Prior knowledge:
Blueprint: H1 2-34, H2 39-116, E1 120-129, E2 137-140, E3 153-155, E4 160-167, E5 172-176, E6 183-188, E7 194-199, E8 206-211, E9 222-225, E10 237-245, E11 253-259, E12 268-273
Antiparallel strand pairs: 1-2, 1-12, 2-5, 3-4, 3-12, 4-5, 6-7, 6-9, 7-8, 8-11, 9-10, 10-11
Amino acid sequence: EKSIKALFHEERSLLSKTIFLVLLSCLFVFVDRFSNLLEKPKVLLSSGLYVMHYSANLPNNAFQRISSFFSTKKYLSDRILDLESRLLSLDTDLEKMASLIEENNRLRELLGSAAKSQDSVLVSEVIGIDPDPASQNILINKGETDGVFEKQTVIDSSGLVGQVIEVSKQYSRVMLITDLNSFVPVAVLRNNLRLMLQGMGMSEKLQLLHVNPTADIRVGDLLISSGLGERFPAGYPVGLINAIDYVEGRPFVDVTATPKSGLDRSQHLLLVFSENSVSVAENGQAPLEISRFAD
C-alpha cells in the first residue's frame, strides 16, 4: 500500500513538472513573440551550444582534414606527373611541328622557283652524299621509274645545283656544279658577257675560265646559265662573283664566285624537264652503286 502511494505521488509530481514546463514554454514563446527580453539569453545559449557541438565534432573534423591532406597530396603528385608527361609530349610535338613547318617552307620555295620557270619539274630529296672529298656528288631518291635521265638539270629554290650523271631504277646520282669535272656556260646578268664556269672541288667556290683583263666584270655580278651547248637551260642563277685577282704578266684574270644555290644545305631539289632536254638513258644501263654514298 505504501509503494502504491509513493508511485501515485511520483506520478503527480511528474505531471506537475510537465504542466509547469509546458506553461513556462508557453510563457517564453509569448514573451519572445511580443518582446526582445530573450534575445541576449538566446545568443548566449546558441554560443554555448555551438561550443558543445564543435567540441563533439572535433575528432571527426581532425580525421577529415588529415584524410583530405593526404588525398590532396596524392592528387597533386599524380596531377604533376600527368602535366609533366603532357608537357614532354607537347615539346616533342612542337619539335615535329617546327620541322614540318621548315620543310613546308622549303617546299613552298621550291614550288615558287618552279613557278618562275616555264619548265616542268619533279621534286626530289637528297638521301646521300659521296664521302670522297674530291667528288662533289649527291644521291637523290628519284630514278628511271620517275622519268629521270642522264644530263638532266637539277636546281633548288635559289639556283642551279648540278646535273644528273647516273640513273638507276629508284635513285640517281647528281654531280654538283662545284665538282672539278663540272663546266657550266654562264653569262653575266648585267651585260650578258658569256663565260665558262668550272667547279673547284669545294662546296662554296667556283672559278671563271679564261677571263680577259679587259672584261667588264665586277664583284657582286650575278652569273646565270647561258643555255649554250644545251647542257643547262638558260636563265637559272648560278653564282655571284666574289673576287677578281689580276696578276701582271698573266694572260687571264683569276675570278672566283660563290654558288647561288644551297649546295650543302638544300634537302629538296627540283629535276627540270625543259623543252630542250633530251633523255640519253639506255635500257641496259648498269644500276647505280648506292654503297658509295653516305646518308
